[in-house]
User: What shape does this take?
Amino acid sequence: AHNKKWLAWTTDQIRSLGLTVPDSYANFAIVRFPSSDLSDRAENLDAKAADSFLKSRGIIVRQLAGYGLPDAIRISIGLEEEMRQVVDALAAFME
Assistant: This one.
């Protein structure tokens, strides 16, 4: 029940930031970032930059380039406080 609730909440919040989050039925969300060739701004908003930004805030996610998704990161569903921190950090990153 916890995973279902916070996966849905996290997905909705991240989508509201303008990022793509495919539907998931697992204990994680995949977040896709704009392709760096779309614009100069997108170059600074790619998955690698997001991973670095999140790490600088103590948030560890998984880059998915090795799985053929260089534009994506995987975020595991955790406790409520952790999910709120992830969403807040992604909002700051997208600004």
